[in-house]
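Retro notes - structure team

What went well: the batch runner handled both jobs without manual restarts.
What didn't: labels got mixed up in the shared folder, which is why I'm recording both outputs here explicitly, each with its sequence directly above its tokens.

Job 1
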Amino acid sequence: MTAGGNRGYGRALLKLSGEGLAGKDGRLDPTIVDALASDLKELLARGRQIAIVVGGGNYLRGAKLLGINRAVADQMGMLATAMNGLALQDTLEQKGIDTRVQSAVAIADFCEPFIRRRCLRHLEKQRVVILVAGTGNPFFSTDTAAALRACEIGADILLKATQVDGVYSADPKADKSAVRYEEIGYREVVERNLKVMDTAAVVLCEEKRIPICVFDLHVRGNMMRVLEGERIGTLIH
């Protein structure tokens, strides 16, 4: 539940891209993951509840593989998210963070199935829950999975961790005149085709009135500042 006013947010869904966690070799970068683990540990100590939806783009972006049926390619992408989720779980547990991996598809030998009530119970016990395999269906991105899970677990905010410091009017790497928004409405994101998240993800959050904060993953303490109620990055609401 929302902690209320300036006290920020109590339960958050964190969306991590595979690329954002990876080094040049495509594997999880220990420096990035260590910093993430330290931030998560502090959040848990302050009573926050965190679920994570992780992508798999560091291993492959399935739909772009030539000659492979889109549905099959997306299934391959789901497996890539599971690989990231298991690696992230092990790293977090080495840091003393109690963690569970739940999958939208059956991978019984490696992780739990996603069951909403079980997920909520883990969160209440101050466990980090890593949600993998997207929605379990092809043609849906992990952004949409993040919005769906945020709605299901009653998240107070969806944290979209990226490699830039917010939502811009254009790609800031390609357009030096691009302007960063401090806040923007759900409808504006869709109408301006800002591509920060899939339209389905934005619309889901709008329906449930779940704010989305887009921020730079690589600045230590950003997650804490957002959940404490500070204005970091771009707030979509």
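Job 2
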Amino acid sequence: MTNGMIDIREFHWMMDMLESIEVGLVVLDLDYRIVVWNGFMENHSGITASRARGDNLFERFPELPAAWLKRKVESVVLLKTRAFTSWEQRPYLFRFRNYRPITGTEAFMYQNLTISPLVSTDGTVSHVCLIIYDVTDTAAGRKALERANAQLEKLSQTDRLTGLLNRGAWETLLVNEFERFRRYRHHCALVMFDIDHFKRVNDTWGHQAGDEVIRTTSRILRQNLRQTDIGGRYGGEEFGVILPETDARGARIFCERVRKNIADTTVSTHAGDINYTISLGISIVDDTQSDYTQWLEQSDKALYAAKEGGRNQVRIFGEDLGPD
């Protein structure tokens, strides 16, 4: 060592190698002054080694996570062992722009970081080495795979025709809501409804027109849902809605609004204009139901009563009709 500076000759072979490959190398003294700044760092920071050398790292790059990096360095110096962090823990240390053509959609370079103590022959550590690896391709690939998996997961839970939850996904949330009631005793209403005389729609105007009626129904339903409400296509022309924190009065108001919106809507198809109605049944969760299936059955009974009563109406189990 000379004047506290590391003898470059001790690792000149490392420098020759690291100047020619895509890896960043920064050597710091224990006051965080830059001693070595290789070509990778020059190219991506726009700062030459001659300008960087001797500068305090955090004064030169005030955006760096100083407290975090100092804790890492202090641990490395104390234990005389390497430390490693991946892009998954911290996406980058230096915010370098990403210039890779394949992963050009990523704004910055993802980095893995190794911090190594440089131990002198007398066993002391007076410098540390930061090695920065560009792992943008790996990170971008992982993120793309995660997005694809998330999309597949969403598709597996979504009804393709309506964009609502499919029966399996919706019924899972119904089970969860029933269990939430048993624990917290919160109000919750369950609505089941279907399209009146839907078979007649298909027979008269065709299945494509029938699909358009179902899509229109789902669109109107979504327009009336609150953020916490859960709508799903239960099957065919039947739909289900979970209304958390909603009593019978609130559920009736919701159902009447949806019913009137649909009754006032004309669906224009290639086969002609279609006007149609829906019938709705409501059940409020309570202690008489031993499981979610009984809750569902009560809504179905209320829906059946609405059908029997002349259609295009709302019925509530326990109010508009008795338990049996």
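One thing worth noting from job 2: Residues 136-157 form the longest helix (22 residues).
We'll revisit the folder naming next retro.
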